Automatic annotation (TrEMBL), chains A, B, C, D:
Listed name of the protein: 4-hydroxy-tetrahydrodipicolinate reductase
InterPro entries: DapB_C, DHDPR_bac, NAD(P)-bd_dom_sf
Recorded GO MF terms: 4-hydroxy-tetrahydrodipicolinate reductase
Listed Pfam families: DapB_C (PF05173)
Organism: Holospora obtusa F1
Gene Ontology biological process terms in this record: diaminopimelate biosynthetic process; lysine biosynthetic process via diaminopimelate
Domain Dihydrodipicolinate reductase C-terminal: 129-238
GO CC, one annotated term: cytosol
Length: 246, 246, 246, 246
């Protein structure tokens, strides 16, 4: 596979590129980053052309640029020639991602992964079950702690949690509180707190090294590459795996 | 219903008696406690005779006494006359409870509730799902924090967690670590910590007031009263409830 | 001592009244509550007149009423006759408490106790030392979790923490973030999170039973009764105790 | 400075070597590791000879080897020629470190750093103050969580905490409980839990990247290099820094 890493000069991007070298089925790695001065629309298109698909970790701003170029490119070419894949790891988008990519899913398989830790999705699945069995008497709060430079709050993951909990538990609609800590460097934490009558349940998922995300995104790229064009949810990815060991 | 509370002078016993007064379907409440000096086997048997069933919160030592008297009584009477119920809320037994009660389940419906918080069982259910989906690469640790006078460690609840996790996830057999804090007064906390590669998940259930247990035990008594003679697990009780609100 | 409990029909007020019965030096207890229909300004004044001093747990609204009546009363009487004391345990005031009570400290000793747990103040003292030794490279976040009916956020205690940390560590001025959970019943928790470079420190103080506050406020009342008229800070109370056992 | 890193092929050792390259005052870096097959006593002595001093992160077993060689070497040479320094970052020793190094402190400045995170020592200082002000009514528990390969429990840091708390608070002698989690990879956490009457305080220090220790040990090496021969405690190092920013 020829893999493009967009945002490849950032902290996470660098780790993806480093780790990708250990993947046998990744033959070529191309890096692009908005920080590069020499970039132009032409170079951007070349980047897309050269790669079978792209992992995007460029941030909300970058994703927009990438999608524009993707669309521009897709509209000019014979769709049959360029079935691409795209794993979007950036968060903080003002629009829904599914909506944002609606114009490119004709010729592109897109996976939106607001969080690339597999265990986090297993965590969410258990949290949803817990919310469903606790029922309407319990208040739910979603909390996240990320580094001081992170601009969006709550985190993309926390938002995803809220949406999922609301859709699985109708009584939680518009009722889930959230809070965020933005401080230091190195804390990557998402928490759900259930408050009942004289009882409280706190569940916390923490990642200590972004290596976890780099590996997760690469594994997702290998999977989405073989999917038909269309929009994919991380839940669909999860279902494709052996998700229950018991 | 005529309800007996064995261990009814202790902290939890007192709360059960207080709360029972608010239950319409509990007509009479009898209290017995090993601390009472005047007790004798005769009085003990009268206690059992007077009640439709008993909630036991007397501690491991007390449960043994109670079961002996129950058995003694059962062996002398016409079983048809005395279908009783028993909710065992004590923990710290050296033998398995199911084994301990095997001689009385001919004429008695017995529910063993090492923890009477309903939400704790929902919590365990989610924890088991999480352990199953995380799989063998994750280490599991069960932790509990209880008051400084509690003698058994780990707590009955923590032990139950370990057994359940081991039976649901064969790879965890003999692999689950545990730790306990015994300190202060008022902390009632059970925690499960999953440790992976650069990731950690911590889930904690805390009860702030033993009112939760008093209410739970009374609700369980109302249910087990109508069950046929036999041994019942708290999971069976849970299944009888509307356990999933979604 | 003749003690008045204003807000004495609320949850905390009831506990204070119950516990006060065990204090040998509290001879008479008077209860007043805004929920009482029959109250009038005359009754309110009688309440103040009858008591040597008052513990206020009526909430921000109530405190204002109480201070108005206090002032009204003080302005009409011979100040020498009525040296009173007042322990303000309510929080959520829109003005600073010291400012609010400025008109009554001529004839009243006032202690503002946004939190009546002694250990919480020892906790704060350690937190301040930690903030001072960690220095400007660490970000500080104050978090609190209280019941779903609590109206003010952050809690009075959290606000006090922020003010104290800012005044002890000039580099934190306007830099301390905060978050609050309002959910369930029974969680009373204040937390300070320090985020550094690949390091994080989390310190949490939790109260499991408002008995702690009832006892704290009664002990404070016994102390402030013997203080000269004026405004007192909980730090001053702390200094009067044997604060360091080592 | 010519710096030796003993245990320099391990995870932490590698990080120290990497980071040392950025230190202007570290001119040469020598690496030695028990995993190297070709090692012999001669090579070991050469290693000591070549370096101005050594950072030891080889583990308890390695430290013993290192001290033997150090002693052997010291006994044969003119002490004036070889004032060396040694920073011991290994833990899990069966003997006290001060005792273990007693034979080499005639010609060597030794700093024992069971934990090289500066903030951890500030944390401990606050914890000690908290224990002192809470007093004898509170129970104290020390907890640590480290990776699944760590052999000693409690951690060297946790042990140090216990000793310090016991010596600062005589009533805690033999009364401090501890627990440890050994699981996963990447959690580096030390916690102190204070349990009172209906109150609990939990303080947790977590390191997310061993970069923190690598930097700490290098900074300590620069300091101990200029100290006179003798045994040094990490507290002495702390005092030499600007420890209080306020």
């Amino acid at each position: 596979m020829r893999l493009g890493v967009f945002g490849g000069l950032g902290r996470l991007g660098t780790k993806i590129v480093d780790l990708a070298k250990n993947y046998n089925n990744i033959d070529e790695i191309y890096v692009m980053d908005l920080k590069q001065k020499e970039q132009s629309i032409k170079i951007f298109k070349d980047f897309i052309l050269k790669c079978d698909g792209i992992i995007d970790v460029s941030g909300a701003q970058g994703t927009k640029c990438l999608l524009d170029t993707f669309l521009d490119y897709g509209s000019q070419c014979d769709p049959k020639l360029l079935k691409k894949f795209l794993v979007i790891g950036s968060t903080g988008h003002t629009l829904g991602v599914q909506e944002m990519v609606s114009n490119i899913i004709g010729f592109c398989s897109v996976l939106y992964a607001p969080n690339a830790s597999l265990s986090l999705w297993n965590f969410l699945r258990s949290i949803v079950l817990l919310a469903q069995t606790l029922g309407p008497d319990w208040d739910v709060h979603v909390h996240d702690h990320h580094h001081k430079f992170k601009k969006d709050a709550p985190s993309g993951t926390a938002l995803y949690f809220i949406q999922h909990l609301e859709s699985a538990c109708p009584w939680l609609k518009q009722k889930i509180q959230w809070s965020s800590i933005r401080g230091g460097i190195g804390v990557i934490l998402n928490s759900v707190i259930f408050s009942g009558n004289c009882e409280v349940i706190q569940c916390t998922h923490q990642v200590m090294d972004t290596y976890v995300f780099a590996k997760g995104l690469l594994d997702m790229a290998l999977w989405i590459q073989n999917c038909e064009a269309g929009y994919y949810d991380v839940q669909q990815y999860l279902l494709s795996l052996k998700v229950n060991f018991a």
